[in-house]
Amino acid sequence: MQAVASMNGALRRLPPGAVYLLGLLPLAWVVWLVVSGGIGVDPVKAIEHRLGKIGLWFLVGGLTITPLRRFAGINLIRYRRAIGLLAFLYIVLHLTAWIWLDMGLLWGQALADLYKRPYLLFGITALAMLLPLALTSNNASVRRLGRNWRRLHWLVYPAVLLGVVHYLMQMKVISTEGWLWLAAVLALLGVRFRLFGPRS
Ligand code: HEM
Q1: pLDDT for residue 130
Q2: Which residue, by CA, sits nearest to atom 1 of ligand 1?
Q3: Given ligand 1 and candidates 44, 94, 115, which is best to mutate, with the most ligand atoms within 8 Å of its CB?
Q4: Sorting pLDDT into bands at 50, 70 and 90, what band is 196?
């Protein structure tokens, strides 16, 4: 297919470093909303929510890379590390917004909040799973861990699932958007594990 070939050709000219820079644009946008006063009436909630949502976009975006290559021939594999690390960055910032802006760095209050809102535990577990992936997302770790690197990086699948469950649980009533996110993640996991979708 000509269109896919020229897209892959264009992508080859985009260095992964540029993806890191592009991936920081949503952060710049959130900072801009804060400094320009456009973030809304509840800035803490808005910052927390926006960072969580951006993190989710990157996490789920990372899951689309394999099916895009397998079924559409679009090759984004060399950006996978950048997309994964950007997801991790935004989730860490999301956690930081909660602990710092929301909880005011009061650890006792944070613990009480965890008890009161169990969906936070789902988020923390997801982040805890992403941590070893972020720490081993470098060439030296890939070499050192060998086959175990792939095994370790399977953690991304339960992490994304827990992340999306955390997102749904924090809603009072699950919105259509929430169900669509869950459906998208389940579909991507289904395709990834070849439960359905074209065989190749
Ligand atoms: C993979 C991990 C995570 C993902 C994908 C994620 C994603 C999200 C998303 C998408 C939202 C809602 C945003 C919106 O409605 O626009 C949210 C809300 C929230 N998340 Fe997370 N999150 C994760 C981990 C965490 C962690 C580690 C914490 C802190 C312990 C946390 C604390 C919160 C809080 C406090 C809210 C707002 C709840 C409210 O307004 O009542 N999240 N998260």
Answers
A1: 98
A2: 163
A3: 94
A4: confident
Residue 199 has a pLDDT of 59
CA–centroid distance, residue 199 to ligand 1 (Å): 35
Nearest protein CA to atom 20 of ligand 1, as residue: 52
How many of the other CB atoms lie within 10 Å of CB of 166?
22
| CA–CA dist 42, 97 (Å, integer) | 13
**Buried (b) or exposed (e) across 57-80, using 16+ Cβ within 10 A?**
bbbbbbbbbebeebeeebebeebb
Supply the residue whose CA is at minimum distance from atom 38 of ligand 1: 170
Question: For helices 119-135 and 107-116, what crossing angle results, to 10°?
Answer: 120
Residue 17: which of 111, 86, 75 has the closest Cα? 86
Span from the CA of 168 to the centroid of ligand 1 (angstroms): 9
Answer yes or no: is the C-beta of 120 below 6 A from any ligand 1 atom. yes
Q: What was the pLDDT predicted at 194? A: 82
145-169 pLDDT, tens digit each:
999 999 999 999 999 999 999 999 9
Q: Which domains does the chain have, with CATH numbers?
A: 2-192 (1.20.120)
Cβ 51 under 6 angstroms from ligand 1: no
24-46 pLDDT tens trace: 999 999 999 999 999 999 999 99
Mutual orientation of helices 43-63 and 80-96 as an angle, nearest 10°? Answer: 160
